[in-house]
Design brief:
By secondary structure, this protein is mainly β. The protein is built from no helices and nine strands. It comes from Microbacterium saccharophilum.
């Protein structure tokens, strides 16, 4: 699989998650306050809740339902009740296009 265009930079607003689906994989895309674009799995690992309906603060995305915050860089939950990470996807910016390959996840230590 190759990276696919999911949005343009103009579709993103700072600290506002956007839900996209690539080949059936739900992904939350976030433009953070530093201007970095992140892509993480859109489903909270604590419950079947869309993270793109949540809140961005710094480099975290918080699930609106139970308050688990996930690192946008690593996918790791930073507090309970979630204890399993969400996948983090490589993002490529090509001009104004935002591309993601859902088959390629970042390995973050």
């Amino acid at each position: 699989m190759t990276a696919q265009k999911v949005l343009t930079m103009g579709d993103l607003q700072q600290d506002t998650p956007v839900r996209v689906e690539v080949d059936g994989v739900p992904i939350a895309v976030v433009l953070d306050s530093n201007g970095d674009v992140h892509a993480i799995g859109d489903t909270c690992t604590h419950g079947d809740i869309s993270l793109s309906d949540g809140f961005v603060e710094g480099d975290t995305l918080e699930c609106w339902a139970h308050g688990s915050a996930f690192s946008l860089r690593t996918g790791r939950p930073l507090n309970l009740p979630a204890y399993e990470p969400v996948p983090v996807y490589e993002v490529t910016i090509d001009g104004d296009d935002v591309l993601i390959d859902p088959a390629v996840t970042k390995v973050v230590n």
